[in-house]
Every structure is written in structure tokens, then in C-alpha cells.
Amino acid sequence: MGKKISLIIMTAFYMLAGINHFRNPAVYYTIIPPYLPNPVLINIVSGIAEILLGLLLIFPKTRKWGAYGTILLLIAFIPAHICMIQNGWCMSNGFCLPAWATWVRLFPLQFLLMWWAWSNRK
User: Fold this and answer.
1) N- to C-terminal Cα distance for the chain?
2) Is the Cβ–Cβ distance between 55 and 66 less than 8 Å?
3) How far apart, in whole angstroms, are the C-alpha atoms of residue 20 and residue 22?
4) Is 118 helix (H, G, I), strand (E, B) or coil?
5) pLDDT digit string, tens, across residues 23-40
6) CA geometry: angle at 113 spanning 9 and 14, to 5°?
7) CB neighbours of residue 54 within 10 Å
8) Which long-range contacts (CB under 8 A, 24 or more apart) does 27-32 make?
9) How many domains does the chain have?
10) Cα(52)–Cα(29) distance, integer angstroms
């Protein structure tokens, strides 16, 4: 039962996160590293990827690919977390994450999210 709840929460988490890329794109533009071209396209692709990976997690036949894809996506997001550590991160309303919180987003949170995906692959 706990495994099923974990999977439901993870699926909802990634699908809602993906939808948020379209509801609040400006939040994501601020964390896309400046050396990457076309932050609008990167945000759209990231949002679509999170939604699709969430959908793959629903079905037993595609769950493994959804989990592996989620891990790869989380790895792809590491440069954004490093950029947040280097430059700080503030939202348009003036709220800024403290420096320690940007480190926690990368270590251990990013790796816990990878472990969570790995544990839901079956």
C-alpha cells in the first residue's frame, strides 16, 4: 500500500510540476543557466517532459521508462541547480531562497528525488 501511495504522489508531483512550467514560466526562466540558448523553448520542453514522464509512471508497462526518464531529467536539471547556487534565486515577488536552501535543492534533494524515481520503477 505504501508503494502505491508513493507512486501516486510521485506521478501527481511530476505532472503538476510540468503544468506549472506553463502556468508560471517566469519562475523557470530565472533558473535556466544563461549560457543555454532559448530559455522559453527549454521551459516548454521541460514542462512537456515532466507531464509525459508522469503519465508513463501511471501504467505498469511504461513505469520503468517513466522512472528512468525522470532520473535522466533530474540529472539534466543539475546545471540549473548549480546556477541557483552561484547566482542565488529570487522570485518576481521579491522572495529569495537563502544560500543554504539552494544547496539543499541540489544536495540531498535532487538525489533523493532520483532515489524516489528508482524505487518506483517496478
Assistant:
1) 14
2) yes
3) 5
4) helix
5) 999 989 989 999 999 999
6) 45
7) 21
8) 27/91, 27/92, 30/89, 30/90, 30/91, 31/80, 31/81, 31/83, 31/84, 31/89, 32/80, 32/83
9) 1
10) 21
DSSP per position, 6-32: HHHHHHHHHHHHHHHHHHSHHHHHTTS
Question: 0.90 exceeded by the pTM?
Answer: yes
What torsion do the CA atoms of 54, 99, 96, 47 make, to the nearest 10 degrees? -20
50 near 16, Cβ under 8 Å?
A: no
* Dihedral-angle region of residue 19 (phi above 0 means left; psi in -120 to 50 means alpha; beta otherwise): alpha
Q: Are 57 and 14 in contact (CB under 8 A)?
A: yes
The per-residue pLDDT of the chain, averaged, comes to: 94
Look up the domain containing 53 and give its range.
2-119
